[in-house]
Amino acid sequence: MKLPEVVSKKAYSKYQKDLIKEIHEGPLPKHIAVIMDGNRRYAAELLDGDNNEGHRKGEEKIEEMLEWCLDLKIQYVTVYALSTENFKRDTDEIDFIMNLSEAALYRMADNKKIHDLKVRIRVFGDRSTLPDSVKEAIKYAEEKTAHHSDFNFNVAMAYGSRQEIICAVKDIARKVANREIEIDDISEELFSEHLYTSDIPDPDLILRTSGEVRISNFLLWQLAYSELYFTDVYWPGFRFIDFLRAIRSYQQRVRRYGE
């Protein structure tokens, strides 16, 4: 290894250690939600356009990022794995993503560290649009980790926030029609109870990769007071140091909650 490379690696390592020390001195987010964007652009630029390999590396990054969160004791992690709009993509690509997700769910549910650290895995979204084999994998992962509560890993799959809100409105309307609740009982709290995330705290930090600066129909109700962080890095290339920078940015902000 050449001397400049050695110096560069040492400097990078020191910078990372300094960042870790710095963020441990401030408040850590309880819940981080991630819009994982850029798999296909990463593939186009670095993998000769092999979208499947881009998605594979993106899936590997999910598990790596979860490790970072567990090491920092971040209690809730939510990832936007597949939106309802993503189903408009090429059928072969969707099939590959489904197979990838299915394998990942089984693998994570059997991961010793997941159980040692008591991580609960949950998947929310419109499951009716998913293949039976993926539904079985979801059931397996959720049942195998249902007794855990120290950490929570949530996967938004076949998810769209507008659809989630409409489902909640319909559910509440039915209860009003059936005289289970009164119109005056409807509040922000009651509405939140009818969302997929009813027992999950709202995200403190929403992070999006790839340089896109938008929310893309993700947790629209829940992000009312979330801090937003955008980075140009494509998801498969997202590094621990990029993650630390996002948390440092969060810590440097003053959260006012509308006040």
Quick structural overview:
The protein is α/β, with parallel strands linked by helices and 259 residues long.
Output the number of helix runs: 9
Please tell me what the overall shape is. Answer: globular
Strand order of the largest sheet: 3-4-2-1-5-6
CATH class value of the largest domain: Alpha Beta
**How many β-strand stretches?**
6
CATH topology of the largest domain: Undecaprenyl pyrophosphate synthetase
Intertermini distance:
54 Å
Rg measurement, Å: 20 Å
- What is the assigned CATH homologous superfamily of the largest domain? Decaprenyl diphosphate synthase-like
Active site: 37, 86
Cofactor: Mg(2+)
Keywords: Magnesium, Metal-binding, Transferase
Subunit structure: Homodimer.
